[in-house]
Amino acid sequence: MYKDWSAFTEGKGGIREAFDSKKRVEDALEKSSPSTSKGGDGRDQVRLSLASTSAGRRDNTIDTRTPYEKTKYPDDGGDSDTDSEESDVSGSDGDDTSWISWFCGLRGNEFFCEVDDEYIQDDFNLSGLSSQVPYYEYALDLILDVESPNDETLSEEMNELAESAAEMLYGLIHVRYVLTSKGLAAMLEKYKNVDFGRCPRVFCSGQPCLPVGQSDIPRTSTVKIYCPKCEDIYYPRSKYQGNVDGAYFGTTFPHLFLMTYP
User: Fold this and answer.
1) Among 161, 187, 170, which Cα is nearest to 120's?
2) In this predicted model, what pLDDT tens digit does every residue of 4-32 receive, in sequence order?
3) CB distance 258 to 184 below 8 Å
4) Do residues 170 and 103 touch, judged by C-beta distance below 8 A?
5) Distance separating alpha carbons of residues 151 and 215, to the nearest angstrom
6) Phi, psi at residue 4, to the nearest 5°?
7) 176 exposed, middle or buried (CB, 10 Å; 0-12, 13-18, 19+)?
8) How far apart are CA 53 and CA 76, in angstroms?
9) Helix (H) or strand (E) holding 13
10) CA distance 224 to 19
11) Does the pTM exceed 0.85?
12) In angstroms, what CA-CA distances link 179 with 78, 147, 173, 175?
């Protein structure tokens, strides 16, 4: 019933002594620290110094290179802002990567196969494309990794247009290449690896699909996937693949493929 007040008093005195000791330590630190001036708290000064240091590391220069050049010739001390672009590239080997390998490795371009350089260098295979693609010569040199003496005179806007033209030219070459024996063989490997996706219907039991276009005219419709089992077409599951032009695969490819490899 009766409490031991002596133990409480001793504990109270111990608490008071610990508090006084802590206060003496804090007073000594405040006297020895130069950050207790009227200019502000020392922690604020540390934050300002860190902010100024990080701001000094930023590079305010504008990079006018094309996405392919940024991937092929990356900066040694660059920031991590280009990680999103570099993550879109698979199997990049730096200077040894060709434009075709870089393009086919981009996210969303998994349906494309790599066209042989010999096929592209044959002018007969490119008949009629010069009138469909702007900046045709620049685009062709970019695809074949040919250094043109006029590249240095191009502005940033011209570089972007040449890069876009190269992608369009490669797509128009690709739709012709996949109808050849080498192109069909290259697409067969991708078909076996299910790179084109599977049919979403349950009764098709995961049947691998083939890319198909609903029109042979560029910029008419996006690419779809064709199921050989139910003979229907569907949208690709990836939104990146769904933005690819369907004319880069054409309306003939899946049927010729199934006739060649029944």
Assistant:
1) 170
2) 444 444 444 554 555 565 566 566 555 55
3) no
4) yes
5) 34
6) -85, 95
7) middle
8) 20
9) helix 5-32
10) 75
11) no
12) 42, 30, 11, 7
